[in-house]
Design brief:
By secondary structure, the protein is an alpha/beta fold. The protein has 23 helices and 15 strands. The strands form 4 sheets. A 5-stranded parallel sheet has the order 7-6-5-11-12, sandwiched between helices. α6 links the parallel β5 and β6. α1 crosses α4 and α20 runs antiparallel to α22. The protein is globular and about 95 Å long.
């Protein structure tokens, strides 16, 4: 939590402990070991800013009714040296505490003093965390799952950074293995079909049938003609893959940059093979007695390691089982390369690695975490965020095809149709494990129904207010505690209270791997600002109150801008 809120809770805890001791000394509570108790923010803030269960927790210890214990605590409570000015007893004995005006004024000063750094903390203590996300197959265009994964992964990385972690963003490029072989076969056949007519081979059902394959074949032929027709199949595939793959990867990088995502590294799977790291995994597991041969393939005894992390399954095909490491043809499996890649991550010194995967990879989670244990690492330090599917909606109806191209909508199509601001915001409005209906109509609306527009408008509105007041000679100034204490309207108190929680929201989002908490937070911040400004006049009131409300406007502007910058969303000053 923020240092201010942490100080407030520590002061409150100390005051409660001291009051119980005084109640014991006064004979109002029996001699006993003080009970452990919790402080928490109540769901309904009308019940207080913080709630304490000390009376209920002490019922057995003090052998008294919670209500009586609560009354004894309240009678001896001294809040004079805390950020709280009163307590109320509710229900069977809950103690509800309310912030003092001093807390509110210090919150506003803290926000303005820290500016762009407000919300940041040292919660993560500089621990190194890698967030690997998108990692789309480089043999074709990126789809809607990649669109959601990109926004989710990048915003999660930003949240972790703000929470005090040392964050590394990485894209894993699967430029080796079966998919590249399939890519080469598909390109070769499409190339041959350009020159061999009826004698050209047919494209197998499980190959890549997208039109982009034909486009690559034609592009190569446009430069080099039919020179590959006289080459061996292996030479032809190698030449075509060497031509097409870099272009696909370059397109992926361009799409990510347009999406405002910059990676620290694009890690190539081929490096793991070239450096011998994949083979080293097979050798390592063999040394540990965790491999065996069967029907010409090398297997990893992974069932028991997987079972440690697997949830209870009912389907036979989902039960933990051994895995093939090297196929009969001598080629390592994707599983082997993936183990090598994750070992490489931890070998680079990361304290924790986070992967963003589609929900269809849920069965791979336990296998990979178990494999980390098997090779001598700690599977608990590998976390996987599974995200559900995306449905694109237009006019309330799911759509799959682009109106412009008539083909399945890809990430690049989406970014051509809707603002990047909307895409990044919309994909972070729900937890990763919730399916998303992306409303294309709403994403381009410029009104309060569009949540990202609504938030941006709140910031622009504050800028407009400040500009209009400045034109009348009214500018922000430093306020006294007495002036800031004038902010007593419910709308003012509620907005200040919400602004004070921003640091805690970032920490919670980092802890839960849930950046959607931040979009929900800023929507509420915008709502509370509009509510405050519509109820509380800034201009035309006495000078002290005007200055205090102007300070509150500046604080709200700062926090909203910080959230939008965190999410890499435009921060407009006019709309």
């Amino acid at each position: 939590m923020s240092k201010l809120v942490q100080q407030a809770t520590e002061e409150l805890r100390s005051a409660i402990v001291n009051s119980m001791k005084k109640a014991i000394e006064a004979g109002e509570l029996p001699e006993a070991q003080l009970p452990a108790f919790n402080l928490e923010i109540p769901a309904d803030r009308s019940h207080g800013d913080w709630s304490c269960n000390a009376a209920m927790a002490g019922a057995r210890t003090f052998r008294a009714a919670p209500r009586k214990i609560a009354e004894a605590i309240a009678a001896h409570l001294d809040l004079s040296s805390t950020y709280f000015d009163r307590v109320e007893i509710a229900g069977p004995g809950f103690l509800n505490f309310f912030f003092s005006p001093k807390f509110q004024s210090d919150v506003l000063r803290d926000i303005l003093a820290k500016g762009a750094d407000y919300g940041r903390s040292d919660y993560g203590q500089g621990k190194k965390i890698m967030v690997e996300f998108v990692s789309a197959n480089p043999t074709g265009p990126m789809h809607m799952g990649n669109a959601r994964g990109g926004a989710l992964g990048d915003c999660l990385a930003s949240v972790l950074d703000a929470a005090g972690y040392n964050v590394w963003r990485e894209f894993y490029v699967n430029d080796a293995g079966n998919q590249i072989e399939k890519f080469g076969l598909s390109l070769s056949i499409r190339y041959q079909q350009l020159f061999a007519g009826k004698n050209a081979p047919e494209l197998p059902e499980d190959s890549y049938h997208g039109e982009y394959i034909t486009d690559f074949a034609k592009a190569y032929a446009g430069i080099h003609g039919d020179e590959l027709m006289s080459k061996t199949e292996e030479e032809r595939r190698h030449a075509l893959v060497s031509f097409a793959l870099p272009q696909n990867i370059a397109k992926m990088k361009a799409d990510m940059k347009k999406y405002r995502i910059e990676y620290d590294e694009w890690f190539l799977e081929s490096r793991l093979h070239a450096d011998g790291e994949v083979k080293a995994i097979v050798d390592l597991l063999a040394e540990k007695g965790l491999t065996y041969e069967q029907e010409g393939a090398i297997w990893y005894k992974g069932a028991d390691f997987t079972a440690k992390y697997a949830k209870v399954k009912t389907k036979d095909d989902e039960q933990p089982k051994d895995e093939v490491l090297v196929r009969q043809n001598g080629n390592p499996t994707y599983m082997t390369a993936d183990i090598a890649y994750h070992k490489n991550k931890f070998d680079r010194g990361f304290d924790r690695c986070i992967d963003i995967w589609g929900a269809d990879h849920h069965g791979h989670v336990a296998r990979m975490k178990g494999a980390m244990d098997a090779i001598g690492l700690d599977g608990e330090k590998l976390d996987v965020v599974l995200m559900q599917l995306v449905r694109l909606m237009r006019d309330g109806v799911p759509i799959r095809m682009s109106k412009r191209t008539g083909k399945a909508i890809q990430l690049s199509d989406l970014l051509d149709e809707v603002p990047v601001d909307a895409a990044r915001f919309f994909f972070n409005m729900r937890e990763a494990n919730s399916a998303v209906d992306f409303d294309l109509d709403l994403a381009i609306q410029q009104d309060s129904q569009n949540p990202v527009y609504y938030v941006q408008y709140a910031h622009a509105r504050i800028c407009s207010i400040l500009k209009a007041l400045a034109a009348d000679g009214i500018t922000p100034r430093e306020c006294t505690d007495e002036e800031l204490a004038l902010l007593t309207a419910p709308e003012e108190v509620e907005l200040i209270r919400h602004l004070s929680a921003y640091t805690d929201e970032i920490i919670g989002a980092a802890r839960d791997y849930d950046p959607a908490r931040i979009t929900r937070y800023v929507i509420t911040a915008a709502t509370l600002f509009h509510k405050f400004y519509n109820s509380c006049r800034v201009k035309g009131v006495e000078d002290g109150l005007c200055a205090a409300r102007l300070t509150l406007c500046l604080a709200a502007k700062t926090v909203i801008a910080n959230v939008l910058n965190l999410l890499k969303i435009t921060v407009p000053e006019s709309m």
